[in-house]
Automatic annotation (TrEMBL):
GO terms for molecular function: metalloendopeptidase activity. Residues 170-265 form the M23ase beta-sheet core domain. Pfam families: Peptidase_M23 (PF01551). This is Peptidase M23.
Length: 278
């Protein structure tokens, strides 16, 4: 497992080869690989497009890009300078191999929902998508990330899930086993954009926006201790670990998104301390 080496911000700036240091300047903090978040720095006033989608750039030239679980080996970054000239750069994205995880003992309805469940599932998915589309200038991610809970890692990002013997979608978070009621802390500063006490699959669900389209989701919660619209600081207790939704035991499922792109939370934090408990 590749870790964040004391968190994403622990990486030094990656200066691209001499051919890439021509105007506009471009530097990266992070590793270009599937599941990763990368902080970029360019000349102020430059516009950035990743694979055709415009990326928010701060006044001082900082921006975020991310690569999903199945990101292709190459992405195209387009830079448009303040004077209107542009260039494109090819980014090489390292590919990963993922585990297969088999989970038995789930209620059959949580693996194969009934027809009457489908409208509810669609409505809840729309709420989550909306919360993840917030695009503002807050920079909570610049403080780096901490583990929201410490405990045994019981599920990892990207693993192919076999549920009750049936292949299902990959897992897009990191599962941390902990007793019901264990405090969940904000991994970085942010704004609460979604609170839901009981979604069909994810149970008690909370989404925290860190700015620039980057958000954390916390699933299967027992209790949520914050409200939508509330400003949160890193380390603040925001919820309690639970066993709600589609689960076989108490744990926190922590997820990171850059808009709708699902990223690997484990790449943002230091390795879990050996024998760690809350």
């Amino acid at each position: 497992m590749i870790h964040g080496l004391m968190g994403l911000l622990g990486f030094g700036w990656l200066f691209l080869s001499s051919a890439w240091r021509a105007e506009p300047a471009l530097e990266f903090k992070g590793i270009l690989q599937q599941g990763s978040l990368v902080i970029g720095q360019t000349e102020p006033g430059t516009q950035i497009f990743l694979d055709g989608r415009q990326v928010r750039v701060s006044k001082d030239g900082k921006f975020l890009i991310g690569f999903g679980r199945d990101a292709k080996p190459e992405s195209i970054l387009k830079l448009v300078t303040p004077d209107g000239t542009y260039e494109t750069r090819e980014l090489k994205v390292a590919q990963r191999q993922y585990q297969i995880q088999r989970i038995e003992g789930l209620p059959s309805r949580k693996v194969t929902p009934r027809t009457e469940d489908l409208a509810r599932i669609r409505q809840e998915a729309a709420l989550v998508r909306k919360a993840r589309e917030l695009d503002d200038s807050r920079t909570g991610f610049l403080s780096g990330f901490i583990w929201p809970v410490q405990g045994t890692i019981s599920g990892v990002y990207g693993s192919q899930r076999i549920l009750n013997g049936q292949p299902r979608r990959p897992h897009y978070g990191i599962d941390i086993a902990a007793p019901i009621g264990t405090p969940v802390r904000a991994p970085a500063d942010g704004l609460v954009t979604l609170v839901h006490s009981g979604m069909f699959f994810s149970g008690g669900t909370l989404i925290l926006d860190h700015g620039y389209g980057l958000s954390s989701a916390f699933l299967h919660l027992h209790r949520i201790l914050v409200k939508e619209g509330q400003q949160i600081t890193q380390g603040e207790v925001i919820a309690e670990v639970g066993a709600t939704g589609r689960v076989t035991g108490a744990h926190l499922d922590w997820r990171i998104n850059l808009f709708q792109t699902r990223l690997d939370p484990q790449l943002l934090v230091a390795p879990m301390p050996t024998g760690a408990t809350q």
